[in-house]
Design a protein that fits this description.
Blueprint lengths: L9 H29 L3 H12 L4 E3 H7 L4 H13 L3 E5 L7 E5 L1 H21 L6 H34 L11
Antiparallel strand pairs: 1-3, 2-3
Helix pairs in contact: 1-5, 2-5
Length: about 180
């Protein structure tokens, strides 16, 4: 079955490249601020935030992986690093012997509390305050549409990757390097 590539128009190409530049610049700026001011990579900050918002500051590792931008294996590695710092502890799940729970420690919560004001100010500086209220509303709608399409695409890719792993492949997931 032959398919025809739907190449980007000049305007679509320009928009795509602007979007990439905007995302890369924004994420680099946010990552740089967190590292400079808190010594905390954005991915670790994200994990701490999800745990801080959960009941009893704890989530099953599978729930944390779903809520975050990490695959299960990358999340396990990141949580190990957070455990080494004393910011998170892993506990056995009482209702499922195979499951584990990540719990934010008081020290981890204090790190998050200290990092949050600078992070929020940076997010305001590079995104929120650069847009009008209408633009911000549109960005929310656009972001939801992009996330839904990407999530659907990633789910399909993950099913293929699981089959590849069973066949002895590497099984890298969407968003993994």
């Amino acid at each position: 079955m032959e398919t025809t590539t739907r190449w980007l128009t000049a305007e679509e190409q320009r928009t795509w490249r602007l979007f990439l530049t905007a995302c890369q610049s924004m994420f680099a700026s946010i990552e740089g601020q967190l590292l400079r001011d808190s010594g905390l990579p954005h991915g670790y900050y994200e994990i701490l935030v999800h745990l801080s918002e959960a009941p009893d500051r704890a989530l099953r590792m599978t729930q944390l992986a779903t809520a975050s931008t990490f695959s299960k294996s990358r999340l396990s590695h990141a949580v190990s690093k957070l455990e080494e710092r004393g910011w998170v502890v892993r506990e056995e799940c009482l209702t499922d012997r195979r499951g584990q729970i990540a719990r934010l420690t008081d020290e981890g919560f204090a790190v998050l509390e200290a990092a949050a004001p600078g992070h929020v100010e940076q997010v305001r500086r590079v995104l929120i305050d650069t847009l009008t209220p209408d633009q911000l509303g549109h960005l929310g709608e656009i972001s939801a549409a992009i996330a839904a399409a990407a999530t659907s695409s990633c789910a399909s890719a993950r099913l293929s990757e699981e089959a590849e792993v069973e066949a002895g492949g590497c099984g890298l997931s969407c968003g993994e390097e």
